[in-house]
Protein backbone atom coordinates (compact mmCIF):
# COMPACT_ATOMS: atom_id res chain seq x y z
CA UNK A 1 0.00 0.00 0.00
CA UNK A 2 1.56 3.29 -1.13
CA UNK A 3 0.68 6.55 0.59
CA UNK A 4 -0.99 9.15 -1.59
CA UNK A 5 1.18 11.96 -2.89
CA UNK A 6 -0.02 15.10 -1.11
CA UNK A 7 -0.67 17.89 -3.61
CA UNK A 8 -1.14 21.60 -3.20
CA UNK A 9 -3.19 23.46 -5.83
CA UNK A 10 -2.51 27.10 -6.65
CA UNK A 11 -5.59 28.54 -8.30
CA UNK A 12 -9.12 27.15 -8.16
CA UNK A 13 -10.85 28.32 -11.30
CA UNK A 14 -10.84 27.57 -15.02
CA UNK A 15 -8.12 25.00 -15.73
CA UNK A 16 -7.53 24.25 -12.04
CA UNK A 17 -10.90 22.58 -11.65
CA UNK A 18 -10.19 20.30 -14.60
CA UNK A 19 -6.82 19.38 -13.10
CA UNK A 20 -8.36 18.70 -9.71
CA UNK A 21 -10.65 16.06 -11.20
CA UNK A 22 -7.71 13.97 -12.40
CA UNK A 23 -5.25 14.79 -9.61
CA UNK A 24 -7.51 14.22 -6.60
CA UNK A 25 -7.67 10.43 -6.34
CA UNK A 26 -7.63 9.56 -2.64
CA UNK A 27 -6.42 6.02 -2.13
CA UNK A 28 -5.23 5.76 -5.72
CA UNK A 29 -1.90 7.56 -5.46
CA UNK A 30 -2.58 11.27 -5.07
CA UNK A 31 -4.83 13.67 -3.24
CA UNK A 32 -5.16 17.44 -3.07
CA UNK A 33 -4.71 18.48 0.54
CA UNK A 34 -4.28 22.25 0.25
CA UNK A 35 -5.59 25.02 -2.03
CA UNK A 36 -4.72 28.68 -2.45
CA UNK A 37 -6.46 31.17 -4.73
CA UNK A 38 -6.01 34.93 -4.81
CA UNK A 39 -9.83 35.07 -4.84
CA UNK A 40 -10.93 33.71 -1.45
CA UNK A 41 -14.42 32.99 -2.77
CA UNK A 42 -12.97 30.67 -5.44
CA UNK A 43 -10.68 28.85 -3.02
CA UNK A 44 -13.51 28.48 -0.54
CA UNK A 45 -15.37 26.23 -2.97
CA UNK A 46 -12.66 23.55 -2.84
CA UNK A 47 -13.76 21.68 0.32
CA UNK A 48 -17.29 21.30 -1.00
CA UNK A 49 -15.99 19.77 -4.24
CA UNK A 50 -12.88 17.91 -3.06
CA UNK A 51 -13.78 17.05 0.53
CA UNK A 52 -13.50 18.55 3.99
CA UNK A 53 -9.92 17.35 4.31
CA UNK A 54 -8.72 20.08 1.95
CA UNK A 55 -7.15 23.07 3.69
CA UNK A 56 -7.87 26.47 2.15
CA UNK A 57 -5.10 29.04 2.56
CA UNK A 58 -5.29 32.80 2.24
CA UNK A 59 -1.63 33.12 1.24
CA UNK A 60 0.85 31.36 -1.00
CA UNK A 61 3.27 31.00 1.90
CA UNK A 62 0.61 29.19 3.91
CA UNK A 63 0.07 26.62 1.18
CA UNK A 64 3.80 26.05 0.60
CA UNK A 65 4.26 25.47 4.35
CA UNK A 66 1.49 22.87 4.59
CA UNK A 67 3.59 19.67 4.36
CA UNK A 68 2.71 18.94 0.75
CA UNK A 69 4.86 16.81 -1.56
CA UNK A 70 4.19 18.62 -4.83
CA UNK A 71 2.23 21.57 -6.15
CA UNK A 72 0.04 22.18 -9.20
CA UNK A 73 0.34 25.75 -10.48
CA UNK A 74 -2.86 26.66 -12.32
CA UNK A 75 -3.11 30.35 -11.55
CA UNK A 76 -3.60 33.03 -14.25
CA UNK A 77 -0.73 33.11 -16.73
CA UNK A 78 0.89 36.33 -15.53
CA UNK A 79 1.29 34.80 -12.04
CA UNK A 80 3.06 31.63 -13.19
CA UNK A 81 6.54 33.06 -12.70
CA UNK A 82 5.85 34.20 -9.13
CA UNK A 83 4.09 31.02 -8.07
CA UNK A 84 6.35 28.48 -9.78
CA UNK A 85 9.60 30.05 -8.56
CA UNK A 86 8.27 30.23 -4.99
CA UNK A 87 7.30 26.54 -5.09
CA UNK A 88 10.66 25.51 -6.56
CA UNK A 89 12.50 27.61 -3.99
CA UNK A 90 10.53 25.74 -1.33
CA UNK A 91 11.94 22.46 -2.64
CA UNK A 92 8.68 21.16 -4.11
CA UNK A 93 8.08 19.23 -7.30
CA UNK A 94 6.05 21.52 -9.58
CA UNK A 95 3.41 20.88 -12.21
CA UNK A 96 3.17 24.16 -14.13
CA UNK A 97 0.30 24.78 -16.49
CA UNK A 98 1.05 26.11 -19.94
CA UNK A 99 2.09 28.64 -21.00
CA UNK A 100 5.16 28.53 -18.80
CA UNK A 101 5.03 32.33 -18.41
CA UNK A 102 3.96 35.33 -20.47
CA UNK A 103 7.49 36.58 -21.14
CA UNK A 104 10.77 34.94 -22.08
CA UNK A 105 12.34 36.55 -19.03
CA UNK A 106 9.69 34.95 -16.82
CA UNK A 107 10.42 31.53 -18.30
CA UNK A 108 14.14 31.97 -17.74
CA UNK A 109 13.56 32.93 -14.11
CA UNK A 110 11.57 29.72 -13.61
CA UNK A 111 14.28 27.64 -15.26
CA UNK A 112 16.92 29.30 -13.08
CA UNK A 113 14.89 28.48 -9.95
CA UNK A 114 14.64 24.84 -11.05
CA UNK A 115 18.38 24.68 -11.67
CA UNK A 116 19.30 26.26 -8.39
CA UNK A 117 16.93 24.09 -6.36
CA UNK A 118 17.68 20.92 -8.37
CA UNK A 119 13.89 20.60 -8.33
CA UNK A 120 11.61 18.62 -10.58
CA UNK A 121 9.73 20.93 -12.94
CA UNK A 122 6.98 19.43 -15.09
CA UNK A 123 5.12 21.42 -17.75
CA UNK A 124 1.44 20.86 -18.44
CA UNK A 125 1.67 20.66 -22.23
CA UNK A 126 -1.05 18.04 -22.38
CA UNK A 127 -1.31 18.13 -26.16
CA UNK A 128 1.75 15.88 -26.29
CA UNK A 129 -0.51 13.28 -24.67
CA UNK A 130 -3.43 13.69 -27.08
CA UNK A 131 -3.91 10.42 -28.97
CA UNK A 132 -3.90 12.04 -32.43
CA UNK A 133 -0.66 13.92 -31.71
CA UNK A 134 0.97 10.78 -30.37
CA UNK A 135 -0.09 8.88 -33.50
CA UNK A 136 1.42 11.58 -35.72
CA UNK A 137 4.63 11.45 -33.69
CA UNK A 138 4.73 7.65 -34.02
CA UNK A 139 4.30 7.82 -37.79
CA UNK A 140 7.01 10.45 -38.17
CA UNK A 141 9.44 8.52 -35.96
CA UNK A 142 8.73 5.32 -37.91
CA UNK A 143 9.80 6.99 -41.15
CA UNK A 144 6.32 6.86 -42.71
CA UNK A 145 6.83 10.23 -44.44
CA UNK A 146 10.59 10.17 -44.73
CA UNK A 147 12.35 13.20 -43.28
CA UNK A 148 9.86 15.89 -42.12
CA UNK A 149 10.43 19.22 -43.84
CA UNK A 150 7.23 21.32 -43.66
CA UNK A 151 4.42 21.64 -41.13
CA UNK A 152 1.40 23.76 -40.56
CA UNK A 153 -1.33 23.94 -37.99
CA UNK A 154 -4.73 25.55 -38.53
CA UNK A 155 -6.33 26.28 -35.18
CA UNK A 156 -10.08 26.94 -35.33
CA UNK A 157 -11.03 28.42 -31.94
CA UNK A 158 -14.80 28.28 -32.33
CA UNK A 159 -15.62 29.45 -28.81
CA UNK A 160 -12.91 32.10 -28.74
CA UNK A 161 -15.29 34.91 -27.95
CA UNK A 162 -17.12 32.98 -25.26
CA UNK A 163 -13.91 31.86 -23.59
CA UNK A 164 -11.09 34.32 -24.22
CA UNK A 165 -12.65 37.75 -24.61
CA UNK A 166 -14.77 37.87 -21.46
CA UNK A 167 -12.00 37.96 -18.83
CA UNK A 168 -8.27 38.60 -18.29
CA UNK A 169 -7.35 36.52 -21.36
CA UNK A 170 -8.29 39.56 -23.46
CA UNK A 171 -5.59 41.74 -21.88
CA UNK A 172 -1.96 41.98 -22.97
CA UNK A 173 -0.83 42.61 -19.40
CA UNK A 174 -2.04 39.13 -18.39
CA UNK A 175 -1.28 37.08 -21.52
CA UNK A 176 1.05 39.06 -23.83
CA UNK A 177 -1.45 37.88 -26.48
CA UNK A 178 -3.55 34.88 -27.46
CA UNK A 179 -0.90 33.89 -29.95
CA UNK A 180 1.09 33.05 -26.81
CA UNK A 181 -1.66 32.04 -24.39
CA UNK A 182 -3.47 29.71 -26.79
CA UNK A 183 -0.77 29.10 -29.36
CA UNK A 184 1.98 27.92 -26.98
CA UNK A 185 0.31 24.47 -27.07
CA UNK A 186 0.51 24.17 -30.84
CA UNK A 187 3.92 25.75 -31.27
CA UNK A 188 5.26 23.21 -28.77
CA UNK A 189 3.66 20.38 -30.75
CA UNK A 190 5.02 21.70 -34.05
CA UNK A 191 8.49 21.87 -32.52
CA UNK A 192 8.11 18.33 -31.14
CA UNK A 193 6.90 16.80 -34.38
CA UNK A 194 9.52 18.59 -36.48
CA UNK A 195 12.42 17.94 -34.13
CA UNK A 196 13.63 21.53 -33.80
CA UNK A 197 12.97 24.93 -32.29
CA UNK A 198 12.03 28.19 -34.00
CA UNK A 199 14.92 30.59 -34.46
CA UNK A 200 13.23 33.22 -36.67
CA UNK A 201 9.57 34.15 -37.11
CA UNK A 202 7.40 36.59 -38.98
CA UNK A 203 3.71 37.09 -38.28
CA UNK A 204 0.61 39.12 -39.05
CA UNK A 205 -2.61 39.46 -37.11
CA UNK A 206 -5.29 41.84 -35.94
CA UNK A 207 -8.30 42.39 -33.71
CA UNK A 208 -10.59 41.81 -36.66
CA UNK A 209 -13.99 41.07 -35.08
CA UNK A 210 -14.18 41.62 -31.33
CA UNK A 211 -12.73 45.12 -31.42
CA UNK A 212 -16.20 46.60 -31.97
CA UNK A 213 -18.18 44.43 -29.52
CA UNK A 214 -19.67 46.01 -26.37
CA UNK A 215 -17.57 45.77 -23.19
CA UNK A 216 -18.60 45.59 -19.56
CA UNK A 217 -17.97 48.71 -17.47
CA UNK A 218 -14.59 48.93 -15.79
CA UNK A 219 -14.68 47.12 -12.47
CA UNK A 220 -17.52 44.78 -13.48
CA UNK A 221 -16.11 41.21 -13.14
CA UNK A 222 -18.95 39.69 -15.15
CA UNK A 223 -19.98 36.05 -14.84
CA UNK A 224 -16.88 33.80 -14.75
CA UNK A 225 -16.83 30.94 -17.22
CA UNK A 226 -15.74 27.44 -16.35
CA UNK A 227 -14.11 24.85 -18.55
CA UNK A 228 -16.46 22.17 -17.23
CA UNK A 229 -19.55 24.08 -18.38
CA UNK A 230 -20.94 24.69 -21.85
CA UNK A 231 -19.90 28.04 -23.35
CA UNK A 232 -22.46 30.67 -24.19
CA UNK A 233 -22.06 29.92 -27.91
CA UNK A 234 -23.32 33.29 -29.09
CA UNK A 235 -23.54 33.35 -32.89
CA UNK A 236 -22.52 35.16 -34.99
CA UNK A 237 -19.52 36.65 -33.14
CA UNK A 238 -20.68 40.21 -33.85
CA UNK A 239 -23.58 39.64 -31.39
CA UNK A 240 -21.31 38.84 -28.47
CA UNK A 241 -21.73 41.37 -25.64
CA UNK A 242 -20.29 42.04 -22.17
CA UNK A 243 -16.70 41.53 -23.21
CA UNK A 244 -13.89 42.22 -20.77
CA UNK A 245 -13.55 45.97 -20.13
CA UNK A 246 -10.10 45.84 -21.77
CA UNK A 247 -9.65 44.01 -25.08
CA UNK A 248 -6.23 44.67 -26.58
CA UNK A 249 -5.16 41.26 -27.95
CA UNK A 250 -5.56 39.92 -31.50
CA UNK A 251 -8.40 37.57 -32.43
CA UNK A 252 -6.62 36.24 -35.57
CA UNK A 253 -2.96 35.63 -36.30
CA UNK A 254 -0.70 33.83 -38.77
CA UNK A 255 2.92 32.91 -38.08
CA UNK A 256 5.75 31.61 -40.25
CA UNK A 257 8.59 29.87 -38.40
CA UNK A 258 12.08 28.93 -39.48
CA UNK A 259 13.40 26.15 -37.23
CA UNK A 260 17.00 25.56 -36.23
CA UNK A 261 17.15 22.24 -38.14
CA UNK A 262 16.28 23.86 -41.48
CA UNK A 263 12.58 22.93 -41.46
CA UNK A 264 9.67 25.35 -41.84
CA UNK A 265 6.37 25.56 -39.98
CA UNK A 266 3.33 27.80 -39.82
CA UNK A 267 0.58 28.36 -37.27
CA UNK A 268 -2.76 30.04 -37.93
CA UNK A 269 -5.25 30.92 -35.19
CA UNK A 270 -8.80 32.29 -35.52
CA UNK A 271 -11.16 33.04 -32.62
CA UNK A 272 -14.33 33.69 -34.60
CA UNK A 273 -14.63 30.58 -36.75
CA UNK A 274 -17.79 28.44 -36.32
CA UNK A 275 -15.88 25.19 -35.60
CA UNK A 276 -13.47 24.33 -32.78
CA UNK A 277 -10.58 21.96 -33.53
CA UNK A 278 -6.99 21.73 -34.79
CA UNK A 279 -5.75 20.50 -38.14
CA UNK A 280 -2.08 19.53 -38.50
CA UNK A 281 -0.29 18.73 -41.75
CA UNK A 282 3.27 17.39 -41.76
CA UNK A 283 5.03 16.90 -45.11
CA UNK A 284 8.21 14.89 -45.45
CA UNK A 285 10.50 13.74 -48.24
CA UNK A 286 8.37 10.61 -48.78
CA UNK A 287 4.81 11.58 -47.92
CA UNK A 288 2.51 13.61 -45.72
CA UNK A 289 0.16 13.08 -42.80
CA UNK A 290 -2.86 15.09 -41.74
CA UNK A 291 -5.35 14.65 -38.93
CA UNK A 292 -9.10 14.82 -39.48
CA UNK A 293 -10.65 15.55 -36.11
CA UNK A 294 -8.71 15.84 -32.88
CA UNK A 295 -10.36 14.84 -29.59
CA UNK A 296 -13.69 13.37 -30.75
CA UNK A 297 -14.45 9.77 -31.66
CA UNK A 298 -13.97 9.22 -35.38
CA UNK A 299 -10.66 11.10 -35.47
CA UNK A 300 -8.17 9.70 -37.98
CA UNK A 301 -4.66 10.45 -39.18
CA UNK A 302 -4.41 10.17 -42.96
CA UNK A 303 -1.20 9.20 -44.74
CA UNK A 304 -0.40 9.89 -48.40
CA UNK A 305 2.81 8.21 -49.59
CA UNK A 306 2.05 7.59 -53.29
CA UNK A 307 1.82 10.02 -56.22
CA UNK A 308 -1.67 11.25 -57.11
CA UNK A 309 -3.14 13.67 -59.62
CA UNK A 310 -5.55 16.00 -57.87
CA UNK A 311 -7.23 15.10 -54.62
CA UNK A 312 -7.14 11.42 -53.71
CA UNK A 313 -8.25 9.45 -50.66
CA UNK A 314 -5.45 8.69 -48.23
CA UNK A 315 -3.23 5.74 -49.04
CA UNK A 316 -3.53 4.62 -45.43
CA UNK A 317 -5.87 5.69 -42.67
CA UNK A 318 -4.96 5.34 -38.99
CA UNK A 319 -7.98 5.52 -36.66
CA UNK A 320 -7.42 7.34 -33.39
CA UNK A 321 -9.50 6.47 -30.37
CA UNK A 322 -9.70 9.30 -27.84
CA UNK A 323 -10.05 8.17 -24.26
CA UNK A 324 -12.61 9.38 -21.70
CA UNK A 325 -11.81 12.62 -19.92
CA UNK A 326 -10.62 16.06 -20.89
CA UNK A 327 -8.82 16.68 -24.18
CA UNK A 328 -9.42 13.17 -25.49
CA UNK A 329 -7.93 11.55 -22.40
CA UNK A 330 -4.80 13.70 -22.43
CA UNK A 331 -5.60 15.20 -19.02
CA UNK A 332 -5.69 11.75 -17.45
CA UNK A 333 -2.50 10.68 -19.22
CA UNK A 334 -0.47 13.74 -18.30
CA UNK A 335 -1.51 13.68 -14.66
CA UNK A 336 -0.65 9.98 -14.35
CA UNK A 337 2.78 10.76 -15.79
CA UNK A 338 3.28 13.70 -13.43
CA UNK A 339 2.30 11.71 -10.33
CA UNK A 340 4.74 8.96 -11.32
CA UNK A 341 7.46 11.54 -12.06
CA UNK A 342 6.90 13.38 -8.76
CA UNK A 343 6.96 10.08 -6.87
CA UNK A 344 9.85 8.28 -8.50
CA UNK A 345 11.25 10.28 -11.44
CA UNK A 346 11.82 8.67 -14.82
CA UNK A 347 11.33 9.81 -18.43
CA UNK A 348 8.58 12.28 -19.35
CA UNK A 349 6.99 13.43 -22.61
CA UNK A 350 7.02 17.15 -21.77
CA UNK A 351 10.06 19.36 -21.40
CA UNK A 352 10.74 22.61 -19.48
CA UNK A 353 13.19 23.66 -22.18
CA UNK A 354 10.65 23.00 -24.94
CA UNK A 355 7.97 24.90 -23.04
CA UNK A 356 10.31 27.85 -22.69
CA UNK A 357 11.12 27.78 -26.40
CA UNK A 358 7.42 27.68 -27.32
CA UNK A 359 6.89 30.86 -25.29
CA UNK A 360 9.97 32.46 -26.85
CA UNK A 361 8.68 31.74 -30.37
CA UNK A 362 5.21 33.05 -29.48
CA UNK A 363 6.61 36.21 -27.90
CA UNK A 364 8.73 36.90 -30.99
CA UNK A 365 5.75 36.25 -33.25
CA UNK A 366 3.54 38.59 -31.22
CA UNK A 367 6.21 41.26 -31.47
CA UNK A 368 6.26 40.72 -35.24
CA UNK A 369 2.47 41.12 -35.43
CA UNK A 370 2.71 44.44 -33.61
CA UNK A 371 5.61 45.59 -35.77
CA UNK A 372 3.93 45.21 -39.14
CA UNK A 373 5.16 41.68 -39.76
CA UNK A 374 8.86 42.47 -39.35
CA UNK A 375 10.98 39.30 -38.95
CA UNK A 376 12.08 38.63 -35.38
CA UNK A 377 14.82 36.42 -34.00
CA UNK A 378 13.72 34.05 -31.26
CA UNK A 379 15.67 34.45 -28.04
CA UNK A 380 17.67 31.23 -27.46
CA UNK A 381 17.95 29.48 -24.11
CA UNK A 382 21.09 30.07 -22.07
CA UNK A 383 23.98 27.62 -22.18
CA UNK A 384 23.35 26.88 -18.50
CA UNK A 385 19.75 25.91 -19.15
CA UNK A 386 20.67 23.85 -22.20
CA UNK A 387 23.26 21.91 -20.22
CA UNK A 388 20.96 21.34 -17.23
CA UNK A 389 17.68 20.46 -18.92
CA UNK A 390 19.11 18.39 -21.79
CA UNK A 391 21.05 16.12 -19.49
Automatic annotation (TrEMBL):
Supply the Pfam families for this chain: GFO_IDH_MocA, GFO_IDH_MocA_C3
Which positions fall inside the Gfo/Idh/MocA-like oxidoreductase N-terminal domain? 6-125
InterPro entries listed in its UniProt record:
Gfo/Idh/MocA-like_OxRdtase_N, Gfo/Idh/MocA_oxidoreduct, GFO_IDH_MocA-like_dom, NAD(P)-bd_dom_sf
Keyword NAD attached: yes
**What residue ranges are annotated as transmembrane?**
none
> Superkingdom, according to UniProt?
Bacteria
Q: Does the keyword NAD apply?
A: yes
What UniProt keywords are attached to this protein's entry?
NAD
Annotated ranges, domain GFO/IDH/MocA-like oxidoreductase: 133-290
- Designated name of the protein: Gfo/Idh/MocA family oxidoreductase
Q: What organism does this protein naturally occur in?
A: Sinomonas terricola
Amino acid sequence: MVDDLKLGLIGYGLRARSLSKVAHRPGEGSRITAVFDIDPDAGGQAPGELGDGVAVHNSLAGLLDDRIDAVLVASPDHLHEEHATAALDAGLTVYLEKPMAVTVEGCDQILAAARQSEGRLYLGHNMRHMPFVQEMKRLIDSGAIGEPKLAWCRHFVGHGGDFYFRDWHAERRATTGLLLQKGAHDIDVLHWLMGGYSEEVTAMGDLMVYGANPRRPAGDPGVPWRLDEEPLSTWPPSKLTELNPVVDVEDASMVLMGLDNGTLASYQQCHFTPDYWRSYTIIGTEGRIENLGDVAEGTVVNLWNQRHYGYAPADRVFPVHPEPGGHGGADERIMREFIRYASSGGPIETSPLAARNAVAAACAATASVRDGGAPKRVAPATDQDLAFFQR
